[in-house]
Amino acid sequence: MTTKRKPYIQPMTPTWWKRLPFYRFYMLREGTAVPAVWFSIVLLYGLFALKHGPESWSGFISFLQNPVVLLINLLSLAAALLHTKTWFELAPKAAIVVIKGEKMGPEPVIKGLWAVTLLVTIVILGVALFW
Would you call 39 exposed, middle or buried from its count of C-beta atoms within 10 A (0-12, 13-18, 19+)? Predict the structure, then answer.
C-alpha cells in the first residue's frame, strides 16, 4: 500500500554553515586547503625555475618579492598554522596513550607534536641558512 503523503524534507540553504560557530570554524579549517594548493603551485614553480637556470631562478625570486605574493604567502602560513593546530588537537583523540594503566591527557601529546615541529623547523632553517 502506498501513501499520498509527501515525506518531510528539511530545507537546506547554501548558508547552513553560518548558523553555528562550530560550523563556521569547520568551514574555515576546511578552507585552509586553498592556501595549501597555492603553496604547492609556488613550490613547483620554484623547482622548475631552479631547473631552468640562473635567469629563471632570478625571475622566481622577483616573483616572490612582489607585495601581493608576499601577502598571499603570509596568509598561506597562517592557514597552515591553523590547520596544524587543529590537527595536533585531534591527534590525542585518535591515538590514546596508556601509561601504567592510566590514560594520558592530551596536553603532553600536543606539546610533544609542537616541540617536534619546532625542532624540525630549526634544523631545516639551520641547514638552509648555514650550509
Answer: middle
φ, ψ dihedrals at 99, nearest 5°? -125, 120
CA distances (Å), origin 9, targets 5, 16, 65, 71, 95 = 12, 15, 52, 44, 38
State the distance between the two ends of the chain, measured CA to CA, in whole angstroms.
79
131 pLDDT higher than 90 = no
How long a stretch of residues is the chain? 131
Report residue 61's pLDDT band, with 50, 70 and 90 as the boundaries. Answer: very high
How many C-beta neighbours within 10 Å does residue 3 have? 6
Among residues 63, 116, 127, the alpha carbon closest in space to that of 88 is found at 116
Phi, psi of 56 (to 5 degrees): -65, -40
